[in-house]
Specification:
This protein has 226 residues and is an alpha/beta fold. It has helices at 3-23, 25-32, 47-50, 58-64, 80-88, 94-105, 127-143, 186-193, 210-219, and strands spanning 34-39, 53-56, 72-75, 108-111, 146-147, 183-184, 199-202, 207-208, 222-225. 42% of the residues lie in helices and 14% in strands.
């Protein structure tokens, strides 16, 4: 297949995918949700931990290659070899690599209680071997792996009100037409003297334009400032 034909095929596929996302709100919403990586069977991820996330398997991580694409990692099953490798810092497989990369790059890692296979043999056989495997599990905890039963969603932080808020502009008090700039214009002065009163009250701090002063003086009314 020639390069031009390949590019055309990719374009057609992308158009179909984007069209499906635009017409299917469920598909679009699933893709927009945060991703959670399951190391082990995804169906074993506790519902409380998976709530609001799209649970992905290790195959998704192998295709992606970036552990930072996932909000958190949940270990649902490990083999004894994988447990030993992680405790020793060996990324011998995708499971080990995913957990080690998450710990190194600050992605939360949780461990389900049933994920450790050796715990099914507690008190049945070699106590020394069991203690070694249990030591590996304790090492994971020292690395920062937390029990899934202790997971709690982070509380939403309410938005803070603005630190500074402009005070409300007081309206002019008096017989003139009030305005937010506290300016008495010629038109406002004419409104003040239109009633024929013997006195005119001007609010304190008001700005009177020269033409307004001319109107007030010409009216012969007494000018009183609040």
């Amino acid at each position: 297949m020639e390069r031009q034909e390949m590019e055309e095929l990719v374009r057609l596929v992308m158009e179909q995918v984007m069209g499906r996302m635009a017409t299917d709100p469920g598909s679009r919403g699933a893709l927009e949700r945060e991703k959670l990586l399951s190391v082990g069977p995804p169906e074993r991820v506790p519902e409380s931990v998976a709530r609001g996330c799209r649970v992905c398997s290790l195959s998704d991580y192998e295709a992606c290659g970036d552990i930072l694409a996932y909000r958190r990692v949940v270990i649902t099953a490990l083999t004894m070899a994988e447990l030993a490798d992680i405790a020793a810092g060996r990324d011998a497989g995708p499971a080990q690599k995913a957990v080690l990369q998450a710990l190194l790059q600050g992605v939360e890692v949780y461990l389900c209680e049933e994920a450790l296979p050796h715990q099914a043999y507690a008190g049945k056989g070699s106590k020394v071997l069991y203690a070694v495997l249990e030591g590996y599990a304790n090492t994971l905890q020292t690395y920062g792996v937390r029990p899934a039963c202790l997971w709690e969603p982070k509380p939403e932080i309410p938005a803070k009100p603005p630190k500074f808020q402009a005070p409300a502009m007081p309206a002019i008090k008096g017989s003139a037409c009030p305005n937010c700039a506290m300016v008495i214009t010629e038109e406002g002065a004419r409104a003040l003297v239109s009633g024929g009163d013997s006195s005119v009250t001007i609010p304190q701090g008001a700005i009177v334009t020269p033409s307004a002063w001319d109107v007030l003086r010409a009216s012969g009314a007494e000018i009183i400032k609040e």
